[in-house]
Amino acid sequence: MKIESKFQKKKPVLSFEIYPPKRDKAIQNIDETLAILSELNPDFISVTFGAGGSHTNNQTVALAKRIKHQFGIDPLVHLTCLNSSKFEICELLEELKDADIDSILALRGDVNPEVEAKKDFRYASDLVKFIRQYGDFSISGACYPECHTESKNKVEDIAHLKEKVDSGVQHLISQLFFDNNAFYSFQEHIQIAGMQVPVEAGIMPVINKAQIEKMVTLCGASLPEKFSRIMHKYEDNKEALFDAGMAYAINQIVDLLAHDVDGIHIYTMNNPIVAKRICDGIKNLI
């Protein structure tokens, strides 16, 4: 079933994100993670694009095939375009067709100063238009509740997102955030802009200090005072920080569900314990 159709059948939708292991031998261990995630009955599992965004890295499609055909769960395949040619994207789309996978998360991809970007696609909206012309795929997109780090302001950011939706995006997944009010404000802005697509709230449980510092630098998420106090108090106690981070994420989700969010997308970091702890905390709510 295509991703956007799931929101017509139920609300809220629950989904997870995993990434392809960096080492070949680690792919064998992913089955344990997938087995636990499948027990939680997600509506779909998204798979990030291969290491470095290289089109030659086949792990993303291989993992998506495993999710669909071995575990019976619909996969959402991330596809980045900044470092890909149209020919390379066509190859990947054909591979997805052959695997009977029809849902794609269309992304520009991060700028890598060490890798010269190709000229075929400049923005995610360019990739969306290309996929739409190529075949009958379900296309999802990413959004930033607190503004993309490269946007000048929120007005410009919403305008770019509107262009992406108008190009053919049928479902949005948000970047991580720690302030639910920022997400609710974002929802109002996209409704005013006329974007009538389901939006999933992306939640990343914080289980170590280095993780949060890295992610905040990459995506620009703000840290509410309550969250900062928790991180500061437990930063030197690994077990306590894990419990506190999980509790914060669960409280976020409970509040989001109370506000009738379209869906919850959990960034698992390939850690099934994280996903299971959260689902145990909200099992009677979703």
From TrEMBL:
Tell me the enzyme class. Answer: oxidoreductase
A molecular function (GO) held by this record is:
FAD binding
Q: Which CDD domains match?
A: MTHFR (cd00537)
Q: Which cofactor does it need?
A: FAD
- Keyword field: Amino-acid biosynthesis, FAD, Flavoprotein, Methionine biosynthesis, NAD, Oxidoreductase
Which reactions appear under catalytic activity for this entry?
A: (6S)-5-methyl-5,6,7,8-tetrahydrofolate + NAD(+) = (6R)-5,10-methylene-5,6,7,8-tetrahydrofolate + NADH + H(+)
User: Under which pathway is this protein filed?
Assistant: Amino-acid biosynthesis; L-methionine biosynthesis via de novo pathway; One-carbon metabolism; tetrahydrofolate interconversion
Q: EC number(s) on record? A: 1.5.1.54
What family is this?
Answer: Belongs to the methylenetetrahydrofolate reductase family.
Q: What is this protein called?
A: Methylenetetrahydrofolate reductase
| Organism lineage | Bacteria, Bacillati, Bacillota, Bacilli, Lactobacillales
